[in-house]
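Could you join me in thinking about how sequence relates to backbone shape in a protein? We need material for that, and I hope you will provide a protein of your own picking. Once you have written the record down, we can walk along the chain together:

…
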Amino acid sequence: MTFAEPGELDADELAAAIAAQNADELRDYQKHMWAWLWMAHPHLAHWARPLHAWLDEPAEPTRDGAMRATADAALRHGLIKLTGDRDRRQRSDILGALLEILRSPSGRDGLGAFHTPLPLADAIVHGMLSELPPPGTPFREPAVGSGIMFCAAASRIRALGGDPANYRWRGTELDPVAAATCAVNAALWGLGGDVLIMHGDEVAEPDIEQRFHRERDAIRAHHQTTIGKVTISRVLAGVRQLVDLANTGPA
């Protein structure tokens, strides 16, 4: 639900509408949110699959109960008010904080994972970026986690009068769930289309960026082909409807 925006409803009205959904409706709503990400950023949706692959599985009471409980907790603590405010959304890492809570201490130690607080990330980036870098400058993070350094860098770019979408973002992460979280955050923070979130080890695989470049290009090509087929099918359906109306003649 991190993509939820109130739109014509206010935050409380949208939260109430989601809270009133039954399990099937809530699953459909979640699918709709992920479909939005796929339409806007197909490569990020693909790299975020560890977070949404469960929606492709048959409904199951225990899983649906967990989905309901998680949604209710998020709504109760004001998630929609956060996601509905662009400035607050671009300065938040809800998924990263949640991932940190859910990980066991041994799991964090095994991955060498440490969630950098945003104020610390801001201080680091502020010292590195005293002026706006030229568009196209790459920002690289070899242990990107949920992407908090990207969040701080994007905020600093905006403060200096720039647009994060005009830059290149390259993050590598060993943990597939953290990498998926970063992919979602890249969309939430408005990092643009030139983003690579790479699950892997760039030390063991020096050409990992080239591999993910190829993967992103393939995903985008498939996306365009799929969109083209959907558009053609809609046009053909419209033509068939017009033909049927023409054959029917005046009433």
